[in-house]
Amino acid sequence: MRTPIIEALSSQAAVDDIQVCGWVRTRRDAKAFSFLELNDGSCLRGIQVVVDAGTPGSEGLAEMTTGASVAVRGRLVPSQGKEQAWEVQAAEVQLLGAADETYPLQKKGHSLEFLREIAHLRPRSNLFGAVFRVRSRMAYAVHNFFQERGFMNVHTPMITASDCEGAGEMFRVTTLAPGAAKLDEDFFGKPAFLTVSGQLEAETLACALGKVYTFGPTFRAENSNTSRHAAEFWMIEPEQAFCDLAGNMDLAEAQLQHQVRDALKHCAEDLAFFAKYVDKGLLERLQFVAERPFQRVSYTEAVRLLEASGPAFEYPVAYGLNLQSEHERWLTEQHFQCPVIVYNYPKDIKPFYMRQNEDGLTVAAMDVLVPGIGEIIGGSQREERPDRLLAAMAQHGLSEAEYWWYADLRKYGTVPHAGYGMGFERLLMFITGVGNIRDVIPFARTPGHADF
RNA sequence: UCCGGUGUAGCUCAGCGGCAGAGCGGGUGGCUGUUAACCAUUAGGUCGUAGGUUCGAUCCCUACCGCCGGAGCCA
């Protein structure tokens, strides 16, 4: 029975008979024996295996080079070396699969750009092993957070016929041949797309189950070429009935803090690696976010602060204009130096479904901004008043016929409700310090790139 | 899509209008309870692609392509 290396390394006592399997990171030969360092992905560190000359299977040692896969049986014993507490004294080694001299991962560091070209092998590197372990833990923590608070996980459709929501360009889903004329003969009888958000559908479930959340892939066909955008990404979208904007902000803050605390507690070794090689200030920042309340500032106040601030911005600051990246970064990195929630945006720069405030000018929207990333969460209280919603839809040029089911929620037992969307990859960038979204998802889809 | 940068060995990079370089990695030999081991030795190149200027271009110019950073859009 194979013992994961993470368990072998944390053993409390020697073990007479243990089997470990993994990929060779490095081999160091002496005259009478060899050291093999094996990593199996269960944790950042590898385990040192001592193979004496003449050990059964050691005739394959020459092929146990970096990248080769190996199975070892032997004794787990205290190491004589300084760098590790335990090592395996091999009784039998077996070469499972060799890796010849073309194996691209070296013992030395590689650039992230090069590793992207070998996305099928980069999980075997220290950095990407750590990223994907943290990704797994953070997905688990998402479900933990919501399930413990009585939220139901709902599955909203990947394929949708409702376009828009103001969330950007969509990918078309079709079985028609290119250039086909008869669009009504398409699979769904009308144009269909990959979803850009499960929000509208999640609202219907919130207005029945009370508290729900989605966690799944989302698609945007925007020609965005930045380190923060991908064409396929994962989004977490909670939605609560009987909830207003303040409750929504409370939830967003609590969830973000939960994710950070969970990572600090359960991914300490991997985070320490990021702090050493990727982002020196990572642990301090995460600690700070875990402990301190977020700043909350209205859009109007934010504009006032930006106007009164010293630095000259490239883009103008004025009421009614969107906050630019540089403005968001100034608020969260320079002025408040912590996560900031900006709320109550002008209605003209926000989508139709957001609830109008009594001032007639703003809607109950909120964005959570974090240092280094900018916007990580966007949400709002939804417009629950039927007349207001229909008016907003008309203003945005949306057809009532298309969104009849969405309007029905307001027609039958409407309730105040609110929710938000959190970009999972942006969360991972924040938690790992990794600066490019292409490096926190195993196989990134960006304009012109759908390899692997 | 726009702005800026960049492209030289498997990787990371230096270089120069006149014979193509280093470190790492690979091969080989040696040494050592080693720790991204160490020492010696060796192989490895269409200098992104196509044009142009020049006696001569990896170097200068133009276009295209790739990649990186920033911006817009957003999560």
Descriptive report:
The protein has two domains: 5-97, OB fold (Dihydrolipoamide Acetyltransferase, E2P) (Beta Barrel); 122-439, Bira Bifunctional Protein, Domain 2 (BirA Bifunctional Protein, domain 2), CATH 3.30.930.10. Helix content is 30%, strand content 25%. The chain has twelve helices and 16 strands. The chain has helices at residues 5-9, 112-117, 126-148, 199-209, 245-266, 268-277, 282-291, 299-308, 325-335, 386-395, 404-411, 424-432; strands at 15-29, 33-39, 47-52, 69-78, 86-97, 152-153, 159-160, 172-173, 192-194, 211-219, 232-241, 295-298, 340-346, 362-370, 374-381, 417-423. Helix 3 (126-148) packs across helix 5, helix 3 crosses helix 6 (268-277) and helix 5 packs across helix 7. It is elongated. The mean pLDDT is 92. The chain binds one RNA strand of 75 nucleotides through residues 25-26, 28-31, 33-35, 37, 48, 50, 65-66, 79-84, 100-102, 104, 106-111, 113-114, 116, 167-169, 197, 218, 220, 222-230, 233-236, 314-315, 322, 324-326, 374-378, 421-427.
Set out the fold topology:
Elements: H1 5-9, E1 15-29, E2 33-39, E3 47-52, E4 69-78, E5 86-97, H2 112-117, H3 126-148, E6 152-153, E7 159-160, E8 172-173, E9 192-194, H4 199-209, E10 211-219, E11 232-241, H5 245-266, H6 268-277, H7 282-291, E12 295-298, H8 299-308, H9 325-335, E13 340-346, E14 362-370, E15 374-381, H10 386-395, H11 404-411, E16 417-423, H12 424-432
Parallel strand pairs: 3-5, 6-10, 12-13
Antiparallel strand pairs: 1-2, 1-4, 2-3, 4-5, 7-9, 8-9, 10-11, 11-16, 13-14, 14-15, 15-16
Helix pairs in contact: 3-5, 3-6, 5-7
The protein binds one RNA strand of 75 nucleotides through strand 1, strand 2, helix 2, strand 11 and strand 15.
